[in-house]
Amino acid sequence: MNNEIKDNKSQSAKSSPFGGVRGGLKKLDPFKGVIYFVIVLFASDFVWKLAIAGDESDVLVTFLGMDVTAFFSVMTSHFSNAIFNVLNFFGSDVMQRNNVLFFENGNAVRIIWGCTGIKQAYIYICIIAFARGPWMKKLWYIPAGLAVVYLFNLFRMSVIVELFRDFPHWFDFLHEFLFKYGFYGVIFLMWLFWDEVIRKPQIKSELARIKNGFKRIFSRKR
Question: Does pLDDT of 217 surpass 80?
Answer without folding.
Answer: no
